[in-house]
Design goal:
The protein is α/β, with parallel strands linked by helices. It contains ten helices and seven strands. The protein has helices spanning 18-28, 46-53, 69-81, 103-111, 134-151, 168-173, 185-195, 218-243, 248-277, 283-309, and strands spanning 8-14, 34-40, 59-64, 88-91, 117-121, 164-167, 200-204.
């Protein structure tokens, strides 16, 4: 158990989990000081059912009249958690796939202020990993690489794992209202954390899979996530290297993009001109087009390398006062 000054709030988004929500909340209550359940217009009325089955002063139930998505439910839960005295806010799903006995392991880096954010990683456990459905496993491996590029946290894997925890100080710095309302929520949190230079860590935590039905549609993710990942990448680069800070990544990116696309544009123009005039361009002209393309690509690649190695050394919570 944590000390009285290190209080923990657990937020549980709730949708179509009537059969699991009571056991999940009962298992979480001994570990948390506040349990916030957000019924996201669940057609099974999971929130009302939970209120009948569990009466505990630690428990708060938020009822949405309209379905806002898991991200929308978490936004409401985070806002409610910030009204409490919780130092650490944890997200757990209501389907029973996250064992509360690992909650202490998840929040340990946050309690000692060595990290601002921690998340479970199911890929560390080679014994439990085979229990993950193969389709979900395949999707996670592919999504992990794209999420690394988008978020800038190259040491973080299993990006869609919903077992996450965040320090109050870091959460207060995020623009909660701009967080994605869909299952892109977890990756979106990572993007915002990278922009403010927060320390994020992976914690080995196995998942448990039963007969619960997932609301995650792999086909929908296949088409919905790539545009969001691309938009998040450009948003992160803009805010991180052009608004909050200007460093060598900024310089390499600007010069690299100008040279690469300038050379490409020049080459296309000369190629089109040679086709129109039915003549061959001299080698010097070809070299004049290729040189800035090669130099530009090298500068963009160097900017990418610097972005990968640019990790914060100290957690924000070490020098931010708790409000």
């Amino acid at each position: 158990m944590v000390s009285s000054t290190q209080r923990v709030a657990v937020v549980i988004p709730c949708y179509r989990v009537k059969n699991q929500i009571v056991s999940v909340v009962q298992a979480v209550l001994p570990w948390a000081d506040h349990v916030i359940v957000v019924d996201d217009a669940c057609p099974e009325q999971s929130g009302a059912y939970l209120a009948q089955q569990v009466q505990d002063p630690k428990l708060r139930i938020i009822q949405h009249k309209k379905n806002m998505g898991v991200g929308g439910a978490m936004i409401a839960g985070y806002q409610e958690a910030l009204k409490t005295d919780a130092l650490v806010i944890v997200k757990m799903d209501g389907d029973g796939q996250m064992d509360p006995k690992y909650l202490g392991r998840l929040i340990a880096p946050l309690l000692v202020a060595s990290a601002d954010f921690s998340k479970g990683n199911r890929f560390y456990d080679l014994l439990a990993l085979p229990s993950m459905p193969w389709l979900r496993k395949l999707g996670n491996f592919g999504l992990t690489f794209l999420a690394k590029i988008s978020s800038g946290y190259w040491h973080i894997s299993d990006p869609t794992n919903g077992f996450i925890a965040i320090r109050r100080e870091a959460l207060s710095l995020l623009n909660i209202q701009l967080l994605d309302h869909s299952y892109f929520f977890e990756i979106n949190v990572l993007v915002q954390l990278n922009i403010i230079h927060a320390v994020a860590v992976d914690v080995p935590i196995p998942a448990q899979y039963g007969d619960e039905k997932s609301s995650l549609n792999p086909l929908k993710i296949l088409f919905a996530f790539p545009p969001k990942l691309l938009a998040s990448f450009f948003r992160r680069i803009w805010w991180r290297y052009f608004v909050y800070d200007v460093n060598m990544v900024t310089i390499f990116l600007v010069m690299g993009v100008l040279l690469f696309f300038g050379g490409t544009g020049f080459g296309i123009f000369k190629w089109f001109s040679s086709v129109q005039a039915d003549i061959n361009q001299p080698m010097g002209t070809i070299a004049l087009a290729m040189l800035p393309i090669i130099l530009g690509f090298q500068l963009i690649l160097q900017a990418a390398v610097l972005d990968i190695v640019d990790k914060p050394a100290t957690a924000l919570c070490r020098y931010l006062k708790q409000e």
